[in-house]
Amino acid sequence: HVQLVESGGGSVQAGGSLRLSCAFSGYTYSGNCMAWFRRAPGKEREGVATIYTGDGTTSYADSVKGRFTISQDNAKNTLYLQMNSLKPDETAMYYCAAQPYYWGQGTQVTVS
Question: CA-based, 20 to 30 A from 7: which of 22, 36, 62, 106?
């Protein structure tokens, strides 16, 4: 039974930072891709960052490059998203996802 549980969301002022966590269990992450997505009100879901757990290769949406960092802690079975210099239009529900089709319940990020 695979579970992904996000945490770390909250309210922050523009320019501030947050670190999201995604604790996963029952999942064999090695050699798979894990990712962070977000969905803002009235908008489609958007991919934010991806990590290939096999070698740590990362990729980012152009809008977050240089500000967001995705990382993994294999010992803690946790995926992270460090978000810096947050903007109001990045207010959204943030989700972690694990290949092939596992999703967390989301954590709300509000930037004002």
Answer: 62
Among 112, 97, 94, which Cα is nearest to 2's? 97
Angstrom distance (rounded) from CA 12 to CA 48: 19
Q: Which of 101, 81, 103 is nearest to 17 (CA)?
A: 81
Per-residue pLDDT of 10-50, as tens digits, reads 999 999 999 999 999 888 777 789 999 999 999 999 999 99
| Residue owning tokens 């969301």 | 9
